[in-house]
Structure formats: C-alpha cells, structure tokens
Amino acid sequence: MKTEITNLLGIEYPIIQGGMAWVAEHNLAAAVSNAGGLGLIGAASAPPEIVREEIKKCKALTDKPFGVNVMLLNPNAEEVAKVIIEEGVKVVTTGAGNPSKFMAMWKEAGVKVIPVVASVALARMMERAGADAVVAEGMESGGHIGSTTTMSLVPQVVDAVNIPVIAAGGIADGRGVAAAYMLGAKAVQMGTRFVVAKESIVHENYKNKVIKASDIDSVITGASTGHPVRSIRNKMTREYIKLEESGADFMELEQLTLGSLRSAVMDGDVVNGTVMAGQISGLIKEEKSCEEIIKEIMHDADALLGL
Ligand code: TUI
Q1: What is the reported pLDDT for 247?
Q2: What is the pLDDT, as a whole number, of residue 186?
Q3: CB 84 within 8 A of CB 110
Q4: Which of these, 121, 151, 149, 117, lies nearest to 136 by C-alpha position?
Q5: 145 lines ligand 1 (CB under 6 A)
C-alpha cells in the first residue's frame, strides 16, 4: 500500500506509531521503523538532553526514518524543538496544543511537520502554517483527547484540507486501516496496539491491563481541568472522578496524577497509576512483535481493500 504518506516519509507501510509519553522510547521507535512503519520517540515531559540521548540511541538501532513527538504542554517544548533540528530528525509530530510558533524553524531546517489535531479548525490552521500532513485523532484514543470520534473527525478533516490526513483513534487491526482509508486517510497512527508490542518497554502489568480490558473499560478523567485524558478504569480513576464530582480544585486533582503515568508504565502500578490506553484495548489479545503487528495488519487491510 503506497500512499502520499509513505512517499512523504520514505517508509514502506502507512503506519505511524503514536508518540506516547514514557512508552514511546528508542527501542519501540526503532522496532517500528525497522518493521517498515514510522517509529516516534515521545518527548512528553522529558528534559531536552534526555530527548537528545533517546534520538542518538534510536539512530544506533535503525537506519530507517523515525520521528519525535513534541508534547506542547511541556514547558521545555521550545528546547526540545531545537534538539530535533540539531540532531537532524526528519519528522516531527506534535500533540496537546498548537505548534504554530515552531513551524517556521522546523520547515526551514527541512523537518517534515505533522501536527496531531482533534478538530477541523486546527487542521485548517496547520495547513496554512505549512504542515506537511496532519494526524486527525478521534476521542477513542488513549491519553489526552479531543471530543469528536474518529469516524466523524477524519472525513471532515479530509474535506477541509489539501494535505494528506493520517487517521488515529480506535485503530488496531487491518479492518481499522481499511476503514480509515475509506474515510480518505492516507495512513494511520496507532498507539495502544504498540503498547502491547514485544519491543515495548512498558511494565508487564500495564500490558496485561490493556490485554484484559474490554470495550467499556476506559474512562475520561480531567475534563473539568480542560485536559481530558482517557485511561483504563482503576482505583486511581475512581478516586479522581469522585474528586472531580466533588468540585475539587485543579491542584488537588494534579496531586493525584503527579507521576502516575510513570509509575504505571515503569513500576507496573496499575492500581494507583494512570494506565493510558484507547477504547480499542478490547481488541488486543496478545503481545506480538512490531514486525508481526505491522505485517498482519497490512496483509488484512490489503485484502479488504482489494490491493
Ligand atoms: O497529545 C495527545 N495525547 C497525549 S499527550 C499526553 S501527556 C498529558 N498527560 C496528562 C495530561 C495532559 C497531557 C498524553 N496523551 N494526542 C494528540 C492530541 N492533541 N489530542 C488532542 C489534542 C489537542 C487538543 C487541543 C490538540 C490541540 C488542542 O488545542 C489546540 C489549541 O488551539 O490550543
């Protein structure tokens, strides 16, 4: 399946791995890129020098293109944006905000810029600002989300812009890829599926939580703070929602989630930690290598699309 995105990025398959905080480190990114997709290092809240080290380690593991995701709520985003240029990274994606102020410097340096958007308005603005493509991410996704579903968002973004659109949110198999293609997308981005990859460094407890989750096991917390986050229901989300319903203030809510993603991903605390994952978790039944994931998905998508 060759598309405008495989051509733009110089990759074999139209599959991008989400730039997930703590999860998307160099081992996972390199494994996805080596399997013919586009791996991403998620800069999340990491200090710029850690991002630089992650980029160097990824380069040592793959000669294929890979990218970095800049999480725009990170106070260090500007320094991370510069590290990306200094290290010669070819592709950047952004999340959780509007990357307009970094666009000129990235474009001048020849970096391909692919903002993740959750609305038509931001997609249009990104096209005007010079984005090479956009990821239209529906609210089925894990982590920080918008309020429109993939099924509704993708075709509306496709109609609104002339740059290629990558679909994300609720996609984890060949049917999802084929459906995204039918909606006009030229590639997909998957996060949750790659959390449960053999090469993913996340704690076994986290992987098992995703594998055991059903269709209705994720919840949204943080809507009251303006930063809604989808994760798998546990003691932490129950306490958070109770606090939110009681009208707790921002700082009190922040206190509960401080370091909670890290403790779930790294220490396997899936009780008090935050297990970010998408609604498609119910479809993911076993750990597979990135190569197996990508090969199987593309085989099924090609068959469905008659390619
Ligand atoms: O960014 C993501 N997913 C993420 S970021 C993240 S780290 C985090 N952890 C706790 C709280 C907040 C963040 C975990 N998961 N996906 C891309 C995405 N971007 N989804 C939604 C958006 C988005 C939302 C509003 C993009 C722009 C926006 O407003 C733009 C504006 O005009 O400011």
Answers
A1: 92
A2: 98
A3: no
A4: 117
A5: yes
- Ligand 1 near 136 CB (within 6 A): no
Q: Cβ neighbours of residue 8 under 8 Å, at least 6 residues apart?
A: 112, 132, 133, 164
* pLDDT for res 221: 97
- List the one residue out of 81, 60, 64, 59 whose CA is nearest residue 72: 81
pLDDT at 145: 98
Which two structure tokens, joined as six digits, stand for 299?
């085989």
The number of the ligand 1 atom at minimal distance from the alpha carbon of 137 is 20
- 144 CA to centre of ligand 1 in angstroms: 5
Q: What is the Cα–Cα distance from 270 to 206, expressed in whole angstroms?
A: 6
Cα gap 120→234, rounded to integer Å: 33
Structure tokens at 278: 């998408």
CA angle in degrees (0–180, nearest 5) for 173-99-135: 15
* Residue 81 contacts residue 106 (beta carbons within 8 Å): yes
Please enumerate in sequence order all residues whose Cβ is within 8 A of that of 258, keeping only pairs 6 or more positions apart, or say none. Answer: none
Q: Which amino acid is at 48?
A: P
Give every residue of the chain whose pLDDT is below 70, as ranges. none
Question: How much is the pLDDT for 258?
Answer: 86
Which token pair is 10? Answer: 């110089």
Ligand 1 neighbour 67 (Cβ under 6 A): no
pTM of the model: 0.98
Assess whether the C-beta atom of 21 lies below 6 angstroms from ligand 1. yes
> 11-43 burial, b if ≥16 CB within 10 A, otherwise e?
bbbbbbbbbbbbbbbbbbbbbbbbbbbbbbbbb
d(CA 300, CA 237): 35
**What is the reported pLDDT for 14?**
98
Query: What are the distances in angstroms from CA 228 to CA 51, 153, 162, 172, 251?
Result: 25, 17, 29, 22, 15
